[in-house]
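Slide 14.
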Amino acid sequence: MFDIGFSELLVIAVVALVVLGPERLPKAARFAGLWVRRARTQWDSVKQELERELHADEIKRQFRDVQASVQDTEAQLRASGEAVRREAEQMRQDVARHGDDVAAAADEPVMTGPAPGSPASVAQHVVAADAVEVDEPVRDAMAPPGIDGTAPRAAAPVEPAPVGAPHPDTAQNAPPPRDEQAPR
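Slide 15: predicted structure.
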């Protein structure tokens, strides 16, 4: 701001010494320092106040921006919800109009298992309705018996253990019998 060099400060000091004299110069220097300190303090407080207000304005602006984006998102969600409700109602009306004709077409293959195009889909999972015998229910060709309920698995026969015999699951983990005569 002000470009004051050493030579200017030296001239000011010499003039002050001549005008004030050696007795009053220290008091005048302290007084000038006090006023300079007060002016700096006042300037710093004004500067901090301005920065706080600017920061508060910035926060308010950001809050308004976020509030506007939340309202936009809410409106989009409401519109999406309405679209889904309309689609569901349309589907209900279609099902009511067409009845069970849509669900049970006799000439189309019956799909079981994962969705087509998925990594788990296998061509053997699709069984044509005319290839299935009438007595046998349609089931997934890859599923083992018993999972889909068409052919329950036969249970293995369980033989009762003799009285006093250890259970086969706990016999392996049981500690060895103690020897009664062994020292303790």
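Speaker note: The beta strands are 110-111, 126-127.
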